[in-house]
Amino acid sequence: MSLEVRGLHAGYGRLAVLHGIDLSAGEGELVAVIGANGAGKTTLLRALSGLLPVTAGTVHLAGTDVTGYGPEKLARTGLAHVPENRLVFPSLSVADNLVLGGYTRRRGPASARAEARDRAMALFPRLEPRLEQAAGTLSGGEQQMLAIARGLMAQPRVLVLDEPSVGLAPRLVGEIFSALGQLRDDGLTLVVVEQNARAAFAVADRVSVMDRGRVVLEGDPAALSTDPRVSGGFLGGGFAADADADAAPAAEAPGGTPVVPRSGSGATRATERT
Amino acid sequence: MTDLLQLLFAGLSQGAVYALVAIGFVAIFTVSGVINLAQGEFAALAGLVAISAVGSGLPLLAAVVLAVVSVALVAVIMERLVIFPVKRMTTLVSLILTLGVSTGLKALMLLVYGPNAEGLTPLTPGGFSVAGVSIRYQELWILLIAGIVSLAVYWFYERTLAGKSLRACAEQPVAARLVGISLTKASLISFLIAGTVGAIAGVLASPIFFTSWESGLTLGLKGFVAATLGGLISVRGAVLGGLLLGVLETLTAGYISTGLRDAVAFLLLIIVLVARPAGIFGRSAEARV
Amino acid sequence: MAGRPVRRLPRIGAHSRRSRRGDVIGIAVVALLMLALPLIASSSVINVGVYALIYALAALGLSLLMGLAGQVSLGQAGFFAIGAYTQAVLVTKYEWSGLPASVLAVAVTMLAALLVGLPLLRLRGHYLALATLGFGVIVTVLATESDFLGATSGIYGITKPEMNGRTYNSPTEYYLLLVPVVLLGLWLARNIVESRIGRALGAVNDSEVAAESLGVDAFRLRVQVFVLSAAYASVAGTAFAHWLGVINPNAANFPLSVKFLLMAVLGGVGSVYGAVVGAFAVEGLDDGLRRLIPELLPGAVGEVQLIGFGILLTTIMIFLPGGLHQLWTGARRRMAGSAPEPGDDEEEIHLEPVADDVPLLAREGRPAAGTPLLEVRGLTKRFGGVTAVDDFDLTVSAGEIVALIGPNGAGKTTAFNMISGAVTPTAGEVTMAGTRVEGRKPHVFARAGATRTFQNLQIFTSATVLGNVMVGRHLRSRSGMLGAALVLPARREERAVEESARELLDLLGLGEDADRLAADLPFGRQRLVEIARALALDPDLLLLDEPMAGLSGTERRELARLLRRLRAGGMAIVLVEHDVEAVLALADRVAVLEDGVRIALGTPDEVRHDPAVVAAYLGVEPEDGAAAAVAEAGAP
Q1: CB nearest to A255's CB, from B87, B161, B287
Q2: Domain B2-115+126-275 annotated CATH 1.10.3470
Q3: Are B201 and B23 in contact (CB under 8 A)?
């Protein structure tokens, strides 16, 4: 298994959000995690990449126990996290964003860095003519592509993505998900957290459905898409959801103040709260 | 006309010192959001260390190097002891902490070096006069070295991986951590930069403006005003802000009243902050460092 | 885009109801100790005590500024000096007697603080701190430059105060003269902290935009606290001038401002009495170090005691950010044995089952249903090159529910923020009940009878649920700083406010949670608290930003029923919502935004079948989730 999560508990201060998550992804597998607002999807990824402390449970990355690793160490070990809202470095050029994506490999062979970059460019040819442009001037879709490309520059074993479709026109969503499919076909392990279940179902090998901090359903997309709980409950928008502590960035959550749960998805914030 | 030229020149060399102090504010603020109230003390301490080293017989250049290195070390120690342990760094906490360090350093300087103001030996003593404008060699040194240091800092942020990684921390701390950049290391480096440029400012200014245990207060304040004029997040803005402030101060002192000299900075600060909080050179928040 | 997240100012020792009772005990203990000192101490110690009492007043003012307004001033000594100089001038040059002179001195200082505060308090955090530091420097410069004020040597010959034929000459006498002044200062400060003003300022500290949306004029209150804080400093200054007999530019010195800050921080900014404790501790330390250091280091001259101040400031902030007050409350809590709050996180809220159409919160004077309340014309917002909202028009009338929907990033929240005054539009106008509100602060919007809730909740985390809702009554009560300080007129009003807030909480099923800290509530209830808080304003128009998000199915249904009842009561409601199904069932009219442009406006039925809307949700993939929701919800 490239990524194996057992009984993961995590939360913000006193507010527990994840109550024992099990999740695994084999090499070259694309696993989608879907769920309504507040299901705990973003919290899961933040715990996976070390942004949030894990209160119980284990995480293994390619056989290594990485539970409790900080994000810097995890990045070196081979986990790349493409965060919600893309979070590109706006005043830096696209090229510099990519260079920083390979920060953990800065002492590695230059040929490997060049190769990673060529692969990213081949995946997102739109970025090529914009290399010298400041990343903040890119469109939302291009920023998402850049965020993924930046993640790939770390030459990861596992790439986890937080809602790559958010705020994008359907055509771009298709483009991004087909790129993810291509990465999977090249042997990369991917975990994609999504609200856009249709897009996720189209490319995923396996799907986990989260609700209120637990994985409630798991299976292959074909079987799940006909499951009444998924199609009726989730896609109709009425999936019962409670304590959403998903999207609160750490910087806004000073310790001691329980993180105020927020809803809505990233793009709304990225573009509307500038 | 000669008066004006004389004042402008004096203002520029004074402003170059402010610019260096301002760069220190910018370096730390962008990475950790901390306004380092001890920034002026870095400069004062460097001046006093150099003066006492020369006094104890060290060659001038060695004394200057010793001063810069030891102040850089002080800045790094300060970061480890005072900034690093704090989990929740808020504005109020950071102000009080750095104020504490500033006060402690001041008292330490008073205890070690005594209460008197002194000037370091100039790098090149004397001066000359062109078209009625008298110029000291030390002023030329100030302009030259401040220019070189500013360019070096600018180059560091624009061209090197380490510099870019600091900018990344400033712009998107979460994403910076995700690509493997350590925020605590970045904070340490930013203090190292601030200590170094602050110390250089201190030894450059000392021969002309003199140094005492207290001189860090106004120098730090002026540096902050300069950094704020430049938007607080831009090296280029800090340099321009410093030069502008220096020139305005000497013009005020020359044409209006010497006593009002120190008031100029704060009037300027208030006007700029109320009218253009992003600084007068800042185009927008996206142009960082 | 996406700059550094705004760093919140801290609330050192936030006020919950519990810690406030501690204050009363604290003040009583401090009062006893203050009175006991002259009985047990030697004259030289009492002399230190005199300075401690004088500085305690200035530190108390600073502590109020920091604790209530969340602002730090590094120029408190500037106001101290203005008070002292004014007193000295009046007494020595115009031969006023001490008491009337001090009244004028305080008034002059307050005026100066007002003039300084009006521009400075538009600044926040770092800027304010450095600007006040600059102010202190300017006062020193002016005093040094002014011959009228005696330049560097200052003003001499200020006599000790005389009252009823008695001269307060000895340290003990002066000390006993000052004790009642300090106690009075403590009492006034405590009353303000506990008042409507204190509550509003606490709310501003927790979430300025939310407090503003409830009608709190944060800037105005900050200026008031700043002036008040200067008043305390000036009282200290006048006492200082009389005791020392001479006043010189050192009185505005930066180290003195640092000392005041240290006193406030050491005592604990969240507590009122802390400043007094801090003053005694710091003065004792000051005196001790001044003696000790020259003994240890022969030849040490000048303000060597600063080394202790520096170390103390730093270590307190790292190890004991709540100051001595934190130790005290910690000890008390340990003695009392901590009782953990019940954590019933999974519990849902059940309102009284009432029919959907029973009006709620109808009141006299509410605009008749159908009266246009909110008019939005050509509202536009550009961020850099991106147009988030483009030429948006909307009219909302009393007694209707209007929904604003659209895909992620369509500009819904930006439109909301512009309408409520949190964000200044690039172009366009917003009129609420006849008042132009665009580009003005949210409290203007609130005064016009409208308020809002927030997508990412903006609960006042340091207040109880009741406290949160009481802030909502801010505009429905009026006691000001002075009334609050003197308690008498404010007390009855406070009771009325509390009563109406409790009624509202009962109405929303939150009555049992009234005295819990709002931050301890589960998410669904926090949303309800926010709505209750907004309703406490008694608004004619309520803006709700994604009220359903994160609520369970039952909670959603309860909320929908509540909104219907409010509509029946004549309130106008605008909501931004993701949950298309819920919106179409609830709203009278629906506006659809895409890429900042209003692509449709009509009844739910019209919108449901509008080809532009279907396209916006469908994109090129006909089986997109949200589109399916529109289609499904539309099916009979």
Answers
A1: B87
A2: yes
A3: no
